């Protein structure tokens, strides 16, 4: 199998839609890779999905590296991108580079993702100068949730839409290989996609982006009672797994498991 590279992702713009899903552990990453996605995101959404935190803020760099190591062991074809967690890059460019180097060295991942535009310009430059590919992330950037105060759609107003467009152009200029746009109007996502030469990957950003990304536990219906409008659920594993556990409990209680073939 030929490995997808950041150059593959770049070259897919306006030729073929790019597919990305998150994964945080070996077993799911194996299935996501086998299912044929182009890229796997070791997202800091692990903070919510894996650890049960309310926001992405608490997850640490060490924890992100642990998740990334597990995913890298599983991914044979997909490009593996890892989120820089909150606090690991915002203070200064050297810190941002050191955190990125740790991710690359200790996990073997292929690229990092950071939230923001102009605010972190120098950090992005520093990381890219070190030869580490960067994916941007604009729009609803969950590490800023306490500034936003809500997980509602971003950039509906002109000023924020204009900033997003200029941040996207800046990311392109700095040499980012692609940019995630989260929860913004479809028409704005279309305009940005048409105005930059690097691929846009949308989540809740409409069909005009060059690619799509979802949190894998959300699209598999494992995360309970999380159903934003943009989410398509391909399975309802919450119910399936709960039922399976239920059946196991009933079988053990009734001494139906193990049976004569399930013992030595
Ligand atoms: O952490 C994450 O899962 C993400 C995606 C939603 C883009 O950043
Ligand atoms: Na993230």
Automatic annotation (TrEMBL):
Keyword Transmembrane helix found: no
UniProt KW keywords: Cytoplasm, Magnesium, Metal-binding, Methyltransferase, Pantothenate biosynthesis, Transferase
Principal place of residence: cytoplasm
EC number(s) stated in the UniProt entry for this protein: 2.1.2.11
Cofactor annotation remark: Binds 1 Mg(2+) ion per subunit.
Compartment(s) where it occurs, according to its Swiss-Prot or TrEMBL record: Cytoplasm
Cofactor(s) in the UniProt record: Mg(2+)
Reaction(s) the record says it catalyses: (6R)-5,10-methylene-5,6,7,8-tetrahydrofolate + 3-methyl-2-oxobutanoate + H2O = 2-dehydropantoate + (6S)-5,6,7,8-tetrahydrofolate
CDD domains noted in UniProt: KPHMT-like
Pathway this chain belongs to: Cofactor biosynthesis; (R)-pantothenate biosynthesis; (R)-pantoate from 3-methyl-2-oxobutanoate: step 1/2
InterPro entries in UniProt: Pantoate_hydroxy_MeTrfase (IPR003700), Pyrv/PenolPyrv_kinase-like_dom (IPR015813), Pyrv_kinase-like_dom_sf (IPR040442)
GO molecular function, one term: 3-methyl-2-oxobutanoate hydroxymethyltransferase activity
Residues making up the signal peptide according to the UniProt record: none
Pfam families assigned to the protein according to its UniProt record, in alphabetical order: Pantoate_transf
Gene Ontology cellular-component annotations: cytoplasm
Gene Ontology terms: biological process: methylation; pantothenate biosynthetic process
Catalytic-site annotation from UniProt: 182 (proton acceptor)
Binding site for 3-methyl-2-oxobutanoate: 44-45, 83, 113
Amino acids binding Mg(2+): 44, 83, 115
HAMAP family (UniProt xref): PanB
Family of this protein: Belongs to the PanB family.
Quaternary context: Homodecamer; pentamer of dimers.
Function: Catalyzes the reversible reaction in which hydroxymethyl group from 5,10-methylenetetrahydrofolate is transferred onto alpha-ketoisovalerate to form ketopantoate.
Name of the protein in its database record: 3-methyl-2-oxobutanoate hydroxymethyltransferase
Organism: Moheibacter sediminis
Lineage of source species: Bacteria, Pseudomonadati, Bacteroidota, Flavobacteriia, Flavobacteriales
Gene name per UniProt: panB
